[in-house]
Amino acid sequence: MIALVDSNISNIGSIANMLNFLDIDFQLVTQPEELDNCDKIILPGVGAFDSVMSSLRTSGMDEAINEQVQVKGKYYMGICVGAQLLCQSSEEGKLPGFGWLPLTVTRFDAQQVARVPHMGWNHIEPGHNSALLHNMDEEYARFYFLHSYYIPHDDKFSGGVTRYGALFSAIAQRDNYFGVQFHPEKSHKYGMHLFQNFEAL
Amino acid sequence: MLAKRIIPCLDVRDGLVVKGVQFRNHEIIGDIVPLAEKYAEAGADELVFYDITASSDQRVVDKSWVTRIAQVIDIPFCVAGGIKSLEDAQTILEMGADKISINSPALANPDLITQLNERFGKQCIVVGIDSYFNADSNTYEVYQFTGDEKRTQNTGKQTADWVKEVQQRGAGEIVLNCMNQDGVRQGYDIAQLSAIRKLCSVPLIASGGAGEMVHFKDVFQQADVDGALAASVFHKGIIAMKDLKDYLIKQQIEIRPCA
């Protein structure tokens, strides 16, 4: 069973709708102890880095998730800001992230890209290696992005890269944790496929 | 590459999708949810729902259809109409909309844009602008209350000035409704959109005038907009989504293919 973490400031309804549609077993979770019943964790996040992190701190979820992922080895998928929390810090905020990846979330440089935020459907460049993209048709797969900050590309921690001015990790990953910068719950059939791949891990 | 977006717009009145010509004489197209579902399946990149009566007659509108839409479609959608406060916006976002779009209320209270930005972030704040080319003065002017012809009025603002102001206040996207072209299917207002594009550092969506597939090609290639919004060509079956996307891909425009 997947724990879908409700940090109070995310658009959790659309993810729940998609998981329901796919018949994927999940539980909405707000308290740390509820994570014990689950073998995987999804953390959605929209809004500012600090507001997501401080919400997790208030409920004690930050430490609980860290323990479940780092000590118990459960699979984790962060979405959007939930993906950025894998990093040590963000140019957007003052609070630290989980710090599982030695990276700093960076703002798109308005000198380099025509428009910020990066908003709309983009693809992941060929040659990706993420298990989340297993059996997807590279030519057709597109995902819906909506963000002003990104996880810098680093070969060691990247499961798929996208270029928007900068090259960034559309999927950051290491061991048992993943961060997807886009919104699979808004990415139609390819988003569904990704959730199914996560469930199958 | 980031794909250009094709965005069917569903004008909603009393819970039904309607379409008028130059904002008037609305005819009923159908129920909201099945239409939304149909477009998402057909390959639309995003949907916009405009409650066209809400701003002009000042009533509280039943928005329960937003929840129903969120339950059936898995592409982004935006809700516009009658959002006058932070609380209104929060309600719509909680019902599952990805973005909210404001138009007349932003003109009445520009600070609303600032407040929405601070509370929700710019990524979900869209500002709609109804712009009319005044041939006498040779200028583009902003109109408000365009959902109701009896109350439609010139705001006295120049479109270019308003475009700059809404960005400074934190709009994350601008939808420019070119009123002279709306519903007449003679093509998007390339001249105006190109002029506004130069002033616009957030995504710009063209609205008003789509009639043929070539109009989409022109607006993407000549005005460099991020998305093109259209209603009647889709509702009336004049253009099929797949045909349009296949055509635009052949024209070397970056488009998300219909799978």
Automatic annotation (TrEMBL), chain A:
Pathway: Amino-acid biosynthesis; L-histidine biosynthesis; L-histidine from 5-phospho-alpha-D-ribose 1-diphosphate: step 5/9. The keyword Ubl conjugation does not apply. InterPro entries: Class_I_gatase-like, GATASE, Imidazole-glycPsynth_HisH. It catalyses: L-glutamine + H2O = L-glutamate + NH4(+); 5-[(5-phospho-1-deoxy-D-ribulos-1-ylimino)methylamino]-1-(5-phospho-beta-D-ribosyl)imidazole-4-carboxamide + L-glutamine = D-erythro-1-(imidazol-4-yl)glycerol 3-phosphate + 5-amino-1-(5-phospho-beta-D-ribosyl)imidazole-4-carboxamide + L-glutamate + H(+). Pfam families: GATase. The active site is at C80, H183, E185. GO terms for molecular function: glutaminase activity; imidazoleglycerol-phosphate synthase activity; lyase activity. GO terms for cellular component: cytoplasm. It is found in: Cytoplasm. Heterodimer of HisH and HisF. IGPS catalyzes the conversion of PRFAR and glutamine to IGP, AICAR and glutamate. The HisH subunit catalyzes the hydrolysis of glutamine to glutamate and ammonia as part of the synthesis of IGP and AICAR. The resulting ammonia molecule is channeled to the active site of HisF. This is Imidazole glycerol phosphate synthase subunit HisH.
UniProtKB/TrEMBL annotation, chain B:
One of its GO terms (molecular function) is imidazoleglycerol-phosphate synthase activity. Pfam families: His_biosynth. The keyword Cytoplasm applies. GO terms for cellular component: cytoplasm. InterPro entries: Aldolase_TIM, His_biosynth, HisF, IGPS_HisA/HisF, RibuloseP-bd_barrel. CDD domains: HisF (cd04731). Pathway: Amino-acid biosynthesis; L-histidine biosynthesis; L-histidine from 5-phospho-alpha-D-ribose 1-diphosphate: step 5/9. The keyword Amino-acid biosynthesis applies. The active site is at D11, D130. Keywords: Amino-acid biosynthesis, Cytoplasm, Histidine biosynthesis, Lyase. It is an enzyme of class 4 (lyase). It is found in: Cytoplasm. Heterodimer of HisH and HisF. IGPS catalyzes the conversion of PRFAR and glutamine to IGP, AICAR and glutamate. The HisF subunit catalyzes the cyclization activity that produces IGP and AICAR from PRFAR using the ammonia provided by the HisH subunit. NCBIfam families: hisF. Belongs to the HisA/HisF family. This is Imidazole glycerol phosphate synthase subunit HisF. The lineage of its organism: Bacteria, Pseudomonadati, Pseudomonadota, Gammaproteobacteria, Alteromonadales. The gene is hisF.
